Amino acid sequence: MAVLGLLSQLLLYISAALVTLFLCVYVYFSYSFTYWKRKGAPYIKPKFPLGNNDCFGAEALSYGLETVDWYKEAKRKGHTIVGTWNYSNPVLLLIDPEVIKNVLVKDFNHFTDRDFFHNPKHDPKNESIFVAENEEWRQLRQRLSPVFSTAKMRVMFELVNKCAEPMMQLFETYSQSGDPMDIKDIVAMFATDVIGCVAFGLDAGSFNPHEAKFRLIGRKFFESNLKTKIHLIIGRINVKIAQFLGLRVIPDFLTNFFTEVIAENARFRQENNVRKADLMQLLLDLYESSKGQNDAFTFDDFVGNVIVFFIAGFDTSSTTMHYALYELARNPDLQEKTRVEIETVLKKHGGHLTYESFQDMTYLRQVIDETLRLYPPVQNVARFCVKPYTFKDSNVTVEKGVSVVVPLVALGRDPDHYPDPERFDPDRFSSQNKDSINKFTYIPFGEGPRNCIGKRFGLMQSSIGLIKVLKT
What we know:
By secondary structure, the protein is mainly α. Helices cover 56% and strands 6% of the residues.
């Protein structure tokens, strides 16, 4: 009987502790849900415990579709900004292009940091230019910009062009056999080979099943993984708790793979006095030259920036190529128009695909621009406020640490900005029409000082891949 009494008492204490914990959490959320009202901002009413998120599962990992609904509701009510909640975290959604311009360009110093989960204490090898904050980001940007100079782009153009050869051989094989092909996987293999060549000076061998380590790593990273999803969700619920728990977004296998590749590659170049015109060489020189300095570019920095260039370099470009080919398949007349331009420009340049000839393909660029409008690989641009900011023509002031979000998918599909927005129409971006587009409704690479450092390379890579596929 005494044991049963103790057990009952223990269960009572546990129940009381759980109820107390729930009440504390509920009170915390309830107070947080008054944030935008206290700030005098229009807001969308949140629900406990998801805030304005629609779900708790895998779909909650992206703002992409969620922010479309928030944007539409705010537009209906005539708001230029609207307060929302990501679980208990206040998030300000930017609706008006002029407000977006102010945040990303005019008043950039108030919004220098990206809102993206990272864990510098427990995961130092995944700190990079993508997540670096304030002065650290400025230094990295200055140091890494030379890799995308016009001179380097010309060199990389030839490397990318050569990387397309195995892809075209595979297409020829499928053409002869008549078997169906997975175009998404094929262009991803091409993009992986490009990054392996341009970033590391290596043949990634993505089209050789016995040598395709880079492709296997890239595919594995984007596979559905419960552990990574849980880490991402906890990071969205509370960044500080996720960092305290040592959670990370980039898995160990990816970090370990690139750590080994970089160390081996660097050792080979140093021991054999080999120099190459690639990202690896730039980072290696930066690593060696900054040793002993207070702001040294460490080996962890080396690894982190290589990883982010690999992930961003192959995924965003392959996604763009995939959707462009999808839309051109759905619109044979536009496909033929693109092909005719490619053949005409190549004939003008003696049949050779060169850096100059690719720049003459204006309609192809329109196809890519229209693809990025409908299917931006990065669905939102999110920035942290780093010092208090009052929005023009309002009394709304956001504090340091609050996230502001530019909803790229919603802007690109807004009929007020793009008539008949679901229709794929590259002529929206023709020389006659593009001036009528508000620049800040189309920012697939971000805008302002912190736009995508690899924009020119990404467009070049996607263009070469499409040219090779379409001209056959």
